[in-house]
Amino acid sequence: xxxxxxxxxxxxxxxxxxxxxxxxxxxxxxxxxxxxxxxxxxxxxxxxxxxxxxxxxxxxxxxxxxxxxxxxxxxxxxxxxxxxxxxxxxxxxxxxxxxxxxxxxxxxxxxxxxxxxxxxxxxxxxxxxxxxxxxxxxxxxxxxxxxxxxxxxxxxxxxxxxxxxxxxxxxxxxxxxxxxxxxxxxxxxxxxxxxxxxxxxxxxxxxxxxxxxxxxxxxxxxxxxxxxxxxxxxxxxxxxxxxxxxxxxxxxxxxxxxxxxxxxxxxxxxxxxxxxxxxxxxxxxxxxxxxxxxxxxxxxxxxxxxxxxxxxxxxxxxxxxxxxxxxxxxxxxxxxxxxxxxxxxxxxxxxxxxxxxxxxxxxxxxxxxxxxxxxxxxxxxxxxxxxxxxxxxxxxxxxxxxxxxxxxxxxxxxxxxxxxxxxxxxxxxxxxxxxxxxxxxxxxxxxxxxxxxxxxxxxxxxxxxxxxxxxxxxxxxxxxxxxxxxxxxxxxxxxxxxxxxxxxxxxxxxxxxxxxxxxxxxxxxxxxxxxxxxxxxxxxxxxxxxxxxxxxxxxxxxxxxxxxxxxxxxxxxxxxxxxxxxxxxxxxxxxxxxxxxxxxxxxxxxxxxxxxxxxxxxxxxxxxxxxxxxxxxxxxxxxxxxxxxxxxxxxxxxxxxxxxxxxxxxxxxxxxxxxxxxxxxxxxxxxxxxxxxxxxxxxxxxxxxxxxxxxxxxxxxxxxxxxxxxxxxxxxxxxxxxxxxxxxxxxxxxxxxxxxxxxxx
Length: 761
Fold this sequence. Notes:
The protein is globular, with a radius of gyration of 27 Å. Helices cover 4% and strands 55% of the residues. The chain has a 24-stranded antiparallel barrel. Strands 4, 7, 8, 9, 10, 13, 14 and 15 form an eight-stranded antiparallel beta sheet that branches. With 761 residues, it is mainly beta.
């Protein structure tokens, strides 16, 4: 990634400072160019291709929704040219006060609305159900991932090999972004028009966010704004037969030392891993993985000591699972890649057609993963002691406003049994005659399982048991109302070990009624947005003759009226009253657990990336004691981004996190308390290398509350890690990290030194 800053004004800068000699268009139109005309990715729009490419200047204000027009000094233009192997975007962003531009070096995937950035969203399939996106800030830092329309959420796991460069100018900046076609997935023939959205963030203009499509408050998802690109059909026909293959070997060398009272151990290992990604033509992708590594030193939220090998708590960054995640596109209970702990090897194939797509995979997982069996009030778990084989096949059909899908899943534990699941899913969306948006989603699954727990609590073959799962969701949006209701039923015998089912034998209904009131005045404070809502949730047990659990027992009930508002300084605030009730276990009393919840998020200064706080105060249920006491929960996150005067271009990224929950006992002190803090400090020397220090302490304790006479206990964990990472190009990374984990109260300690080299060919 190349980032150059201009200090003098050159003739090339003058060309970039004014609109190029190209016709303006209402929509984004691509210009096909020869290889000889390929622009140099240096941030300057002075190449011949930019003088011919159509110019799109139709940017619309999405945030803040204050009703004010954006000043003409903040205009933006975008152009798109298509070369043999890539899309190249040229963006010109004007700013009347360029000294206020915000954008320092930061971690990948940490480009947010507190920074000036350009975002590019691409849906090569054209059906509007998923899009790949990148955001590039003015320091050249990239955030990228996949956004799915079904839940309107972004997955920051995928990393795309985009090449970007930024040039700061006296009246704003210009940017070039090259996106290789090898990383865009589209049908071979008869596909729909590609769809694109370009956005611009301007934090000093009160958090303004611009996009190349008008804003709609009733949009079902962010992907509703994507617009068709003219001129892509010729490019698709020219490149659809072109094949790509990537080899990504990696070497991990780790040395470990552990001490405990009366015991010491040392060990070292060296492992080679390999990922193979092949695309023989546009509609087929094949993936293989061999012994991939995911070192705890590389994550920003450490897992607890003793549980570092349990996959469920780690964010997914393994490329094998991220490839074609949009095709897999299933709710969390259906498939969750982190149930595969440590693959020994895996194979996967994905096919995309104009109206259908499909993917299939099979992996062999090493021992050490987590085996879960859900109950209404608890989750039974044990560590997998043997290898397993996880397999899944998925197919979808796309129609206008309708999606139909089917899948089959199996987890084979060998002599310990297996878990087999079949499922169907569907989604329908349409616009009513009154302009209202409707969306209905559903999933149905059936399972049969012969893998469970033996008398010793370990994995064992058990008698076969069947179970079912059903889920449905309805969403209704207009300019003034937003309604949502969700139904879910999980039979006592339902198991899906390739998904995530921490509870079974329950039925739930939840939803919310939201009234959108728009801009309001709260005294002297002008609110850009104001909403009131009523959220509800009810969970009840289903009868289970195997365990004796009776049906119809309320596990949890919530009724929460609240308000949400948006104000200047990128500030959002919400508050709600919780008329809640909870039950600790089968046959226990249904307790009154009324609470007050509120939270705030703001960016009050250029050097503060975020201040966020959430607080719940009221009656808290102590599940172990089956009693209610006054207590609460509090979470605070603070992020800072500062330039370092030591050397121009260096920056310091600081993220702090604190959370505490407590329940007061009868003796005037907490009967139970859980506290954790985390501090993350990163020095960025360049967009390619950084030094990261991560510190985390957790502490939990139970004291005698004077009534329950539960046994007192105390746990404390300490984590420290230091990591240096150097990336000289996409896919080529060197990491060196040290981890120190301690349990001070029992005098246990483990340390590791990890060297990792990743290479892409």
